[in-house]
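Work package 3, deliverable 3.1, input record:
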Amino acid sequence: MPQVTFIEPSGNEVQIDVANGWSLMQAATSNGVEGMEAECGGSCACATCHCYVESHADQVPAAAANEEEMLANVAAERRPNSRLACQIKMSDELAGIVVRLPEVQY
Ligand code: FES
């Protein structure tokens, strides 16, 4: 299974094997990764699964219009690599991806 590395707000790194098709949000919440809230459960309606994608910029599919709208509401600084983790599905192309969680989600 492809692996993701989450960098928690403290700087702690957590590596998780993720089945293809699972979202990065599901991977983080089901493994207790700090810094992921995901209040809406993956409906692209809360923006509390904000993350910074630190690698694989060319492999991560572009954000859809509704994700772009929600990214305008993130609590932490929005950066060029800001994404919503519930909208990124794991795939073989994303094996080894590194994702940083922000200090705040509210
Ligand atoms: S979990 Fe709510 S927008 Fe991603």
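The CA atoms of residues 54 and 98 lie 5 Å apart.
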